[in-house]
Request: fold
Amino acid sequence: MNNNLYAITDSQLLPGDTLFAGVSAALKGGCKLVQYRDKSADHARRLFEAKRLLDLCNQHQAQLLINDDVSLAQEVGAHGVHLGQGDTNPVAARIILGSRAIIGVTCHDSLALAQQAIKDCANYIAFGRFFSSNTKPDARPAPISLISDARKAFSDTPIVVIGGITLDNGKQLLDAGADMLAVCHSLFSAEDITAQAKKFIELSFTDQD
Reply:
């Protein structure tokens, strides 16, 4: 986790070959962590796309995580997985993927879920949504104060935040204690994805108002 930008793909936003063009552009902008998120049942296509994304990430010394699917992550040799509360248990994922795998866990708006995730050896905890989200419009909102509370409670664990994050609101989440901004729509819908990625990364280095 070399900088604050955590890119999440979307099969509707990046259909077909635009997936690879979009991720490549984000990587060129400095993104070092990409999550492949595709909820379809087309295993052959998902396997092909994940392998190609892994090649792109490796070319840029970046890391690829697979959303929810531990077996796909194992099959392609991805760097890890991101797990929701209804997915594979982190302990089981660790056994399958090994000690070096990155395992992140969605904790919604709950410090208790975060505490359990850390107990289960998660590498990072993810909270959100913090703002209106195109990707998960029905997700329950989380208060920004949750970030500072989590930072105090879990000082050694990286905190990822998600949900409607833009260049205009991302800085306040970093200032509250977040380590990484998980971004989908605001990154991949940009006219210049490479420039947009650079702008997100620069948020970590701008002075507070």
